[in-house]
Amino acid sequence: ELVVTARDTYGNQLVRGGSFVRVVLRSEGMSVVQSEIGITDNDDGTYTGFFQRGSAGNYTIQASIDGLELGVKALYLQAGQLVLINSLVGGPVSMFLAGPYVAGEASFLSFTFRDEFFNTRYQGE
Fold first, then answer.
1. What does the longest C-alpha to C-alpha distance in the chain come to?
2. The pTM is what?
3. Are 81 and 87 within 8 A, CB to CB?
4. Which residues pair with 5 in a beta bridge?
5. How far is 25 from 17, CA to CA, in rounded Å?
6. CA–CA dist 57, 8 (Å, integer)
7. Alpha-carbon distance 32 to 21, whole Å?
8. Do 51 and 63 touch, CB atoms closer than 8 A?
9. 43 near 69, Cβ under 8 Å?
10. What are the Cα distances from residue 37, in Å, to 7, 9, 11, 40, 100?
11. pLDDT of residue 39
12. pLDDT attached to residue 83
């Protein structure tokens, strides 16, 4: 949820709606993805928008009221809860064959843990 609060030049909150509020969410990844967030006028000087992104990463939010730019705010969306069925186990092809395996030999496995949208979860997330 995103809330924009309209204020006058002295910083006082406006108590009525009616302004045109525009909010744009932009990804900062390999490919730039931009989407406009639908905004609801709460008729009390606040405006609410909801957004859901399927990709974790760095984003910016840019807002304007009646054409006056309010600035750009950076945010990081982290991956959701771990979903094991979306996760990967990897290693050399020989590890997935029937054998033979030699006791005492080093082996290599990699695990990639992912959320419901297949975002990679990193340590501590």
1. 77
2. 0.62
3. no
4. 46
5. 22
6. 34
7. 22
8. no
9. no
10. 20, 25, 25, 10, 57
11. 93
12. 87
pLDDT, residue 32, reads 63
- pLDDT for 114 equals 86
**Residue 117 vs residues 7, 38, 81: alpha-carbon distances, Å:** 37, 22, 10
Average pLDDT of the chain, as a whole number:
83
CA distance to 39, 88, 98, per residue, from 109 (Å): 47, 10, 16
Determine the length of the chain.
Answer: 125
- Sorted by sequence, the CB contacts under 8 Å of residue 3 that are 6+ apart come out as 46, 47, 48
Token pair in block for residue 80: 């959701």
Q: Which residues does residue 27 pair with via DSSP β-bridges, in sequence order?
A: 59
Contact 114, 81 (CB under 8 A): no
Q: What percent of the chain has pLDDT over 90?
A: 24
- Per-residue pLDDT tens for 58-113? 888 899 999 999 889 898 887 888 888 888 888 776 666 666 777 887 777 788 88
For the purposes of burial, counting CB atoms within 10 Å of the CB of 31, is it exposed (0-12), middle (13-18) or buried (19 or more)? exposed
Read off the tokens for 21: 């509020």
d(CA 122, CA 103): 31
